[in-house]
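Researcher: Here's a chain I'd like modeled. Treat it as a single chain, no partners, no ligands.
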Amino acid sequence: MVGKRSARHTVRTMATEAAEHEPPQELIRTEQLGLRTKRGWVYRDIDLTLTTGSVTALAGAAGSGRSMLLLTLAGRAKPTTGRLIVAGQERRPDIRQLVAVARITGAIELEPEMHVVDHIRETELLGQRDYRWAAGTIGLDVDPTAVIADLATDDAVLLAVALALAAKPKALVVDDVDIAATPTQQRRIWTALRAAGTTVIATTVDGRIAADAGADVTQGSVNARV
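Model: Modeled as a single isolated chain. Structure tokens:
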């Protein structure tokens, strides 16, 4: 009996080790992705390969096309050129089901006058959303009676992330991690994003704090006007 138990244990250990050494699986790939408007290129020639569970910081100046790239990666904006493949899907309606949007500055944000609980209820009304699990996953503990405008910057960002993560998407995007955030708050946000357990693409002006927190940093390649 001891020999049989040991044999089972050995097989289980070998399987675990094999899984740990498997290369990361590609989740998102872009090929020469570009978006052009009447005013010119917003971004162009974007080649990215993002793996399952990775956290990527798109670093660059405001106005460099980062937000529109996030919207494209989430299937909300239609690129002019190139290809976007997410988990094998290329149709924008399918991509929208796979990639959640936590925040896009000036376009998709929490309502400042609402209470935290109001946003939680809205999320749960969509069905198959587990906010409590999501908040616990990223270490967020925020007063549900608080008004959004009164939240600390890092709590507000992480609340938006938790609400998006509640749907258990394959990936999520979040804009301007560093806006109005202290270095300490930024470190907390990036650490929480790494704990999310899903592929995350986020923007920032300076990628150094993101890199220190273990995120992959893509510096400057988004800006088509440089």
